[in-house]
Amino acid sequence: MKKLVSLLLTLVMILGALTVFTGCGAPKDDGAEISIYLGSEVFDFDPSDYYVSSNAERVLSLIYEPLFTVNEKGNIKCAAAKDYDVDEDDHEITIEIRETYWSDNIQVKAADFVYAWCERIINPVNPNPAAALFLDIEGVREAIEGNGSIWDVGIKATEMDEITITYRAGADYKRILKNLASVAASPVRQSIVEGAPAYWSKNPNVMVFN
């Protein structure tokens, strides 16, 4: 009798579990979705504005790709970058970017990174806390303080797919590379920003992502 009761109870539990799993079955194919917990809603998708906001960075890291990422061991890995070389004698970092495209199928260029960094972040006309990411690069401190031009800093698009960075003597180039893994150091395209300066990062009909 006890065996029969135990068998019946086991059967009831199995049927109950199957009912639960059936009710929570695979959702309809509504497209790819990633659920993220956010403390507040994100309304502006300018990557440089969220240097100090881990909340928005969770979203922006899904739609923008900086040159590098940092793995769980703290090591630099290439992302939008294909490869890089460091000349410690001349204090130069040469970064080759891989072939990637904006969401409107226009190729991402080295100049998109340089524009984002120099005009959008380092430029003292629009003070940005993300400028701290670039302080070890030659001429950046002077440009931020208004004692030099943003185009005289050690950041150049030397080829369509190549960026050359000249860093300060004594600076740690590894820290610079890690700083460039911040989503705030992602590229933005000049034609998009200047075509709609008031709302380029707020209007989904205008925004592009890499």
Q: Keywords for this structure?
A:
6 strands; disordered N terminus; single chain; 210 residues; 6 helices; alpha+beta; two-stranded antiparallel sheet; four-stranded antiparallel β-sheet
Q: Report how far the terminal alpha carbons are from each other.
A: 67 Å
**Main beta sheet:** 4 strands, antiparallel
* Strand percentage: 5-15%
Helices, by number, come to 6
Structure commentary:
- The protein has about 210 residues and is of the alpha+beta class.
- Helices cover about 30% and strands about 15% of the residues.
- A four-stranded antiparallel sheet has the order 3-4-6-5, covered by helices on one side. Strands 1-2 form a two-stranded antiparallel ribbon.
- The protein is globular and about 55 Å long.
Task: Indicate the topology.
Blueprint: H1 2-23, H2 54-63, E1 68-70, E2 76-78, E3 81-87, E4 92-97, H3 110-122, H4 140-144, E5 155-159, E6 162-166, H5 173-179, H6 190-195
Antiparallel strand pairs: 1-2, 3-4, 4-6, 5-6
Question: What does this entry show, briefly?
Answer:
The protein is of the alpha+beta class and 210 residues long. The chain is built from six helices and six strands, in the order ααββββααββαα. The strands form two sheets. Strands 3-4-6-5 form a four-stranded antiparallel beta sheet, with helices on one face.
